[in-house]
Structures are given as structure tokens and as C-alpha cells.
Amino acid sequence: MNLSSPSTSSASSHPLALYGWDERWETEFAPYTEEGLLPGRVVRVDRGQCDVVTADGVVRADTAFVTPDDPLRVVCTGDWAAVDPGGNPRYVRAYLPRRTAFVRSTSSKRSEGQILAANVDHAVVAVSLAVELDLGRVERFLALAWESGAQPVVVLTKADLVPDPVTLAHLVQDVETSAPGVPVIPVSALHGDGLDALVALVGSGTSVLLGQSGAGKSTLANGLAGADIMQVQAARDVDGKGRHTTTTRNLLTLPSGGALIDTPGLRGVGMYDAGTGVGQVFAEIEELAAGCRFHDCAHEAEPGCAVRSAVENGDLPDRRLESYRKLVRENQWTVAKSDARLRSELKKEWQRKGLAGKAAGEAKRRSWH
């Protein structure tokens, strides 16, 4: 007996099922179906136009009707779009509300965000083992990944460059300590080691591949796709950095199931309203903070600080606390850029804490004398 509903059956057999089309998307798209529009997934965006894969194949569509002033509401790779059934040019008339969105702060001095990928289930952060691990950068990526609503995964690429299994295990443990609740998978895409474990995690749904230039993202994408779909360039020996092999965000299907969005290498990954994500990355600090004497403790010189006590007792690495402070401050300031009242409050609060810290230091020096 077939217990599936007609809508479930139609969604699973839909030509776009490989791209993530499901019953929920079908239900949300129903009003546009009545208007005669076609559903499609945006696989590439380029200067006011985008490539949309539909049941009839990939079509080129203009985004003039969905280009608002808000940069976070422009069409993005991964969006589900409502497209004209014909015409030249064809237009994207609307897109469905996003389930998840990976957003970073732009490099501008204004409070602006840039959306990198939409409707992703997994945010795969590629970290190269060809250079020294930068745990602070890993934590930064993970904060934005958690905030997006996707499940983060850290992939330590170029694991073949660390032939000693003990050393590799220590590196994995270091990242796991900085990534609570996040799978950490060492992979050698060159030899195929670790790919099976990664496919088992991201073999369904949509994944976005993130990381710096030279992190091995294109090689990893080729390994997951089982073909040389992405051009690969050698990284510089001196610092492990590479050129931007990928210059646009492209969505492609994988033979093992699921879809993958490959992104250009990111030189900067700024916080953008990611307070919840920061809290998840530093869950142990947030838990310790509940035991501080003051609810607004900055974990610096305040008496009764449970977080500082954990550092002094060796239960919490000082590097973790410093990274936490940095990301919290940066995120607060980014949010405050668009909120004058909050900006004023933050300045007063930082001045107050600065004076309190100075007074505490002077009191300590007097006690020494």
C-alpha cells in the first residue's frame, strides 16, 4: 500500500527533486502556479541576470522585478524563483521566502550585509592543513554558519600533507574544541580519503562550500562531484594561498544526492547580526557566564566572574575567551551601525567598563604597595 500523499509523491518525482524541490516548496509555490509561472532554482547570478534550472532545463532570466534597495533581498544562488513560462527576455517575478541564508558583513563602513547562499542545509567550512590552523577564523565562519540556520561542518582539507596520524588527530581535536557540536572531517580530496564520511553527512539537501582562497574548495567540489567540474590552481608554497579559482557562486547536483553551492574564496568574513551564532560557537562560555556575579559581566576585571575563574583554573583556554570577546564586540558594533540609540549605549557601556577596569587596576597596584 502506498501511504504517501499525492502531493508528496508529485514532489518527489518532480524533475527539480534533485535540486531540493519538496512538498513544502510545492505548497508555497501554489499561488504562482495559478498565475502560470514556472518554479526553478537559481544556480547562478550575474549582473542583474541569473540562470534558473526549471523542469524544462536551464533558462536565463532577468531580475529587474526583484531588485530592491536592500542587498539582502536580491536574488541569490539557491533561491527558489517564479519564472515567466516564456518570452524574451524572461523574468524572475518573485522568489519564495528563504528557509536559511548565509550572510556576512560587507567591507563597507555602512551596516550592510552580503548574502552568499540561500536555502542551504549544511555550511561546509574548508580549512587547509597546508598552513598553520587559524582557530579564530574557524570560529568566525562557524558563528555565521550557525546564524544562517544551516548545520556547520568543518572539513580539514589537504590531510595528505600531515602524514603522521598522531599529529593529524591532535589537529582534529584542536578544531573540535573550537567547534562544539560540529562534525570535523579530515579529507584528502587528492587521494579520496575522508570523502565517504563527508558524503554521508551532506549527501542529501543543499550544502554551501566556504573558505579562503587556497583552502582546496574546488578540489573538494570535484571530489564530491566525481568529475573535474571546477578548475584547480596550485596554492603558493609560501603561505598556502591561492587565486580565486571560483569567481561566481554556482549550484550543481551531486551523483551521491543533494546539491552543492561552490563560492569564491573569502578574504574577509565580517560578523553580521550573528549574536546567536556566536553564542552557539562559544556555548561553554555562555554556560559559565550564567554563574557570574553580575549579569552584564564583561569577563575582564569584574569580581565573581565565573568565566575568568575557569581560565585561571585551566578549564577554559584564554584564547577561546579572547576570540569570544572579539566576535561579540565586532557583532555588537556592526548591529549598532544601523541603530543610533544602541550605538550611543554601547559607547557609554564601553567607557564605563574602561573606567571600572582602570579603577580595579589602580586598587590592585595600591594593595601591592
Task: Walk me through this protein's architecture.
Residues 1-7, 232-240 and 242-246 have low confidence and may be disordered. The protein has 3 domains: 6-95, Beta Barrel (OB fold (Dihydrolipoamide Acetyltransferase, E2P)), CATH 2.40.50.140; 101-262, P-loop containing nucleotide triphosphate hydrolases (Rossmann fold); 282-368, Ribonucleotide Reductase Protein R1, domain 1. The N and C termini lie far apart (86 Å). With 369 residues, the chain is of the alpha/beta class. The protein has helices at residues 6-12, 23-34, 135-148, 165-178, 195-202, 217-225, 275-281, 283-289, 306-312, 318-336, 340-368; strands at residues 38-46, 49-54, 57-62, 80-83, 90-95, 101-105, 113-118, 122-128, 151-157, 184-186, 206-210, 250-253, 259-262. The protein is built from 11 helices and 13 strands. Helix 3 packs across helix 7. Strand 1 (38-46) and strand 2 form a beta hairpin. The strands form 3 sheets. The chain has a 6-stranded mixed sheet with strand order 10-9-8-11-13-12, with helices on both faces. A 5-stranded mixed beta barrel has the order 1-2-3-5-4. Strands 6-7 form a two-stranded antiparallel ribbon.
